[in-house]
Amino acid sequence: MKCIHCGFENDNGTKFCGNCGSLIAAPRTIPSSTIPVQQLKCNKCGVSNPAGSLYCDNCGTKLSEPVTATAAVTGSKPSRVTHEKTSAAWWLLPIFLFWLGGLIGWLAVKNRDKSKAAKLLWTGIVLTILWIIAMIAISAAIVKSSTFF
User: Fold this and answer.
1) Which of 69, 72, 94, 109 has the fewest other C-beta atoms within 10 Å?
2) SS3 assignment for 32-85
3) What pTM value is reported for the model?
4) pLDDT tens-digit series, residues 49-92
5) Secondary structure letter of residue 112 according to DSSP
6) How far apart (Å, rounded) are the C-alpha atoms in residues 6 and 53?
7) How buried is residue 71: exposed, middle or buried, by Cβ count under 10 Å (0-12/13-18/19+)?
8) DSSP bridge partners of 23
């Protein structure tokens, strides 16, 4: 089953996407494949998941040590999938460019660090709203102080 959110090809009958953790369909059935493949067992529900899965197919829990597809095929030691560390300099974009900077930061970081990307976007939006409110308040104060009786 192909995930409609990220396009990852999951086993038929999976409930949650093995790549992004999104809800897919009905509960998982026993896979039809008889080829033994190295799998990762979910710590929460105990279901074995295909190599390369980041989230459990049955309950959607993030798997602690996903097995890479290369490790499963070659029989090598499983490696931990890590997220790339992103620079703190990305925070300068929403601070100086407001919503546009937040959008640029989100687009640049979303594939490496989804959490940071979302925070960059929201920071840009919030700073834009605060700037608008401040400009309205300043304009009102100027108009009020320049009014002659």
Assistant:
1) 69
2) CCCCCCCCEECCCCCCEECCCCCECCCCCCECCCCCCHHHHHHCCCCCCCCCCC
3) 0.43
4) 887 778 887 888 887 754 444 444 455 444 444 456 888 888 89
5) T
6) 13
7) middle
8) 16
